[in-house]
Structure formats: C-alpha cells, structure tokens
C-alpha cells in the first residue's frame, strides 16, 4: 500500500523576491512545506535561517526545512541550537536538511575549508552526531572528532518535537551514510536521477540495513521541477496536469516518495507572474490529480 505523500514548494531566497508573500501564498494554496536552499556565499540571497524564522512567523501551518544547509559554513553545535530554537518557537514546524557541501571555491572564499569528497562525508557524519547530542537534553556533553568537538557543554533548550535530520546525497558512499545515520534523504529528481532511483534507493536501504535500521524509517524527500503546460508532454515533468499526476504518483508508488517539493521557475523579473501561475496550478490541479491516482490509506 502506497503511503500518502505530502507536497511543498522550493523557495529560492532571492532578496529581490517578495519572499514572505510567496510563503503565505504557498500556505493559502494548501501546500504543507517550504524547502529553502542554502548558499551563504550567494550575494543575491538572504540568509536561509533568517528567512526560515521569518517564514515560520509569517505563517501558521507551514513546515520549513533548509534544502539543504551547507555544513562546511555552519558549525553544527550552533546550527543545532538554531534548529532547536526555530522548532520551539514555531511549535514544532522545523526539520533540518544537511549537505556535505558543493561549490568548494565559493565555500573556501567565504571562510570554509576545502575538503576532499571523503573528508566532506566524514565532516557531515560528525556534524550529525554533534547536532543530535546538542538536542539530547543532557549536560556535560563531550565529543572528540576529527572535525568537531564538544567539551563539557550543556544542551538546551530542547526542540518542540524530534527534529528529523535529512541529508542531501547522491554518491554511493553518501547514500549508504544517509541510510546509516539520517531520518530522511533529499535528492533533486531529474530524468537522470529518475532512471537511477531504484539503485539510489537501494543504496540508502543497504546503509540502513547494515546499521540495523528499518529502511522505511528514512523519509524520501524529492525535489521536483518542470513546467505545467496545456499542450503535449515534452519530457519528465514537462506537460499537462495529467502527465504530472502520473509521474508524481509513480514517484510515490514505485520510488517511495514521502514529500514532493515543487521547484517552479524564478519569481524574479518578467517571468514572476508565470511562476506564481505554476505554483497555483501545482497546488490546485496537480496535487489533487496525483492524490486521485494513489490508493487510499487503510
């Protein structure tokens, strides 16, 4: 039996966009989530966590997560404190997406340290450990890693709920690490990733099984993008509502999507009106059509 999916919107933190108006529109349209990309070195973007706080304040039902936070530029103990505070202040509407880092020239230029792929994964694994310890409620926390340490610190205040740690990953080692450590997996699904989803899901499952975990405990959070049209389909997620519904329903039934996050065109410039139309069509047409194709929950 397929699980009932949830739906959200991928918010680009462009300072020129009416970001809080967009978030309110997402909520009014009935979507449940906003994912916000995190590129601190991008001069056109506001800070992801400052925007998250504003979105949580400006809405009453939306749940928000960084899609995904740049660990090389965000010390995990402070990040954990920020995450717990956002969750507490919003009544439990925050989840934490983390990534090992990309765009290393920009990361290094902004003060981060360039890492090899293997070292970046090791740093990410330690970050997950530090974050969870800071949320533990315990006192006198100690951790000595290669990249991070905790030396006699006290955790708190606690988050309002058990925050999920979701990892953005695609490589074989990163996927197995996701299965071993994380509560969720956050890929962006294009045609290439779609073809590889059975293999990629399998690697996450392998990591979970090796750690003695139930693979179904790792939530699948898929970023999806394309164009909703009234004409014939021209490719994956490019075509009419019926095609979108078929393809999203397949992501749920065949590839175990739990949350589908729609990334539409940019809200900036002359295409801003079309971007809002795409958002409304996704929420008002695609989501109901997708749900109609899925088996009812028992």
How would you sum up this structure, described in words?
GO terms for molecular function: monooxygenase activity; oxidoreductase activity, acting on paired donors, with incorporation or reduction of molecular oxygen. Keywords: Monooxygenase, Oxidoreductase. Residues 19-224 form the Luciferase-like domain. Pfam families: Bac_luciferase. This is Luciferase-like monooxygenase. The chain has 298 residues and is α/β, with parallel strands linked by helices. The protein has a single domain (6-293), classed as Luciferase-like domain (TIM Barrel), CATH 3.20.20.30. The chain has nine helices and 14 strands. It has helices at residues 19-28, 48-58, 76-90, 104-109, 117-134, 172-181, 191-210, 241-253, 272-293; strands spanning 6-11, 33-36, 63-66, 69-70, 96-99, 141-144, 149-153, 165-168, 184-185, 188-189, 219-225, 227-228, 238-239, 259-263. The strands form three sheets. Strands 1, 2, 3, 4, 5, 8, 9, 10, 11 and 14 form a ten-stranded parallel β-sheet that branches. Strands 6-7 form a two-stranded antiparallel ribbon. Helix 7 (191-210) links the parallel strand 10 (188-189) and strand 11 (219-225). The longest helix is centred in the C-terminal third of the chain and has 22 residues, at 272-293. The model has no long low-confidence stretch (mean pLDDT 96).
In the CATH scheme, what's the topology name?
Answer: TIM Barrel
The CATH superfamily bears the name Luciferase-like domain
Kindly report the average pLDDT value.
96
Q: Strand portion, in percent?
A: 15-25%
Query: Are there runs of 5+ residues with pLDDT below 50, and where?
Result: none
Q: Describe the global form.
A: globular
Helix content: 40-55%
Distance between the termini: 8 Å
* Corresponding CATH architecture: Alpha-Beta Barrel
What structural class do the secondary elements suggest?
Answer: alpha/beta
The SSE order reads EHEHEEHEHHEEEHEEHEEEHEH
Instruction: Please work out how many helical segments DSSP would assign.
Output: 9
Strand count, sense and closure of the main sheet? Answer: 10 strands, parallel
> What is the CATH C level class, in words?
Alpha Beta
Rounded to the nearest angstrom, the radius of gyration is 19 Å
């Amino acid at each position: 039996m397929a699980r009932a999916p949830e739906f959200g919107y991928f918010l680009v933190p462009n300072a020129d966009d009416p970001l809080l108006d967009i978030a309110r529109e997402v909520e009014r349209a009935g979507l449940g989530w906003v994912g916000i990309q995190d590129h601190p070195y991008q001069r056109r973007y506001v800070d992801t966590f400052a925007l998250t706080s504003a979105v949580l304040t400006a809405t009453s039902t939306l749940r928000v997560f960084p899609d995904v936070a740049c660990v090389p530029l965000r010390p995990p103990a402070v990040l954990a404190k920020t995450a717990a505070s956002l969750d507490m202040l919003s009544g439990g509407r925050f989840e934490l997406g983390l990534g090992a880092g990309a765009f290393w020239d920009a990361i290094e230029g902004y003060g981060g340290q360039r890492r090899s792929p293997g070292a970046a994964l090791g740093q990410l694994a330690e970050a997950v450990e530090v974050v969870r310890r800071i949320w533990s409620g315990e006192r006198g926390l100690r951790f000595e890693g290669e990249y991070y340490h905790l030396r006699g610190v006290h955790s708190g205040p606690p988050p309002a709920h058990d925050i999920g740690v979701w990892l953005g990953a695609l490589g074989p080692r990163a996927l197995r690490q996701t299965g071993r450590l994380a509560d969720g997996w956050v890929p962006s699904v294009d045609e290439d990733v779609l073809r590889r989803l059975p293999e990629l899901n399998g690697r996450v499952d392998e990591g979970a099984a090796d750690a003695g975990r139930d693979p179904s405990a790792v939530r699948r959070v898929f970023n999806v993008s394309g164009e909703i049209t009234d004409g014939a389909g021209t490719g994956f997620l490019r075509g009419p509502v019926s095609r979108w519904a078929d393809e999203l329903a397949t992501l749920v039934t065949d590839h175990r999507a739990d949350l589908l996050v729609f990334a539409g065109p940019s809200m900036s410039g002359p295409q801003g009106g079309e971007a809002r139309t795409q958002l409304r069509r996704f929420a008002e047409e695609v989501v109901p059509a997708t749900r109609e194709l899925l088996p009812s929950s028992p």
